[in-house]
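User: Fold this; tokens only.

Assistant: Input:
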Amino acid sequence: MSQINGPPPPVPRSVLRRIALLTAIITLSNLAASIQKGSRVFLFQQTQCFNYYQIHDPSKIDWNEMIDEALCKGDGVQHPLSYTVGIDSLLSTLPAIIVMATYQKLLHVIGLRRLCVVKDGKFSGEDPGLLLASSDILDNGAEDSPEQPMLSSEAPKKDLSISRIILFSWSESFHALINIFRTPQPTLTVLSIFLFYGLAARAEVLLPQYTSLTLRWPLATVDLAIALKSLVSACILFVLPTFRKTYLEPRFTTARIDLLITQASLLASIAGMVGLALAPQGAVAFFILSLCVYTGGVGLPDSLTAYGTVTLPQGEKISEYYLRTNLIITIAGMTAAPLWSLMFGTVLSSEYLSLGAPLELCATVFGIALGCTTLLKRWSVGTTGEERF
């Protein structure tokens, strides 16, 4: 369905500046997370390796209690290492559950487009803040919503003590958790896709260890591959808004564009994950190509969130929808990380399962999420054959 006749309007420079700024922030944060992730796995591996050789062959331990990393790739080290990585991922996700509820409460207090300033034990919405980005989808989707003031740039100016905000936000978070799937269509299907996506995407916890074993690389070199993934992700996020504005918006409705990007992202995730799972040992070029293809799915969370916002049923609150999606992704990731690690440890100790079996299962879960998008497409068309949004 075409929305605009004629050439699309040029993208404003202010929008391009915000896109560039956000892309730089995301790139730096992802690079930092990648380096930190690889370093943690290396430290865990050295600890497991030291414990192993202290029992089986103390002569392998250097005077500084370090061990050559090439000696640490056996199942006796990698098997317990997979469990350690899974537990570490689980524990590192727990703070997100606590902070998320507070953010949801702050959304009501200071508004979406205000930068929160923490001062003297209070959250103040009176400070001008810094407007990093704007979203036309949020404004359009909330046009008739009672929460429109919350989404506008003129947010309510209130001061609440941090303890009161945390108390109220945790209560609302618990209420959202027990009612997380009590919502009409299409929001129910959107939340289901987020659930499968959160479960599958958390298989990335295996990537440092899996890459090191498949390519026979030290973890320091693996960091370079994961850093490349972060750079490719940043490039996609930088190009995607302009591509959407220039080529997609003149031809399709907003909801249709978000659904198309969601489906394309899932296809990229499936293809990339299958490639990683089937990559022969030492096939560096094929592995890196598959990793870049998998990274092509980076646009899914934002596009699916935007689709759910635009199609939010009458009477549903936008803030509750955001809280539900974040809760689902966080809880799914928190539970999936140790499960993927347990599965990888089982594969390492098995003589029959291939090393990429967990990644093959991950691609299957992505496939289930892709199947759910067909339900959204059917719902969007409806019984009349015309798009609802």
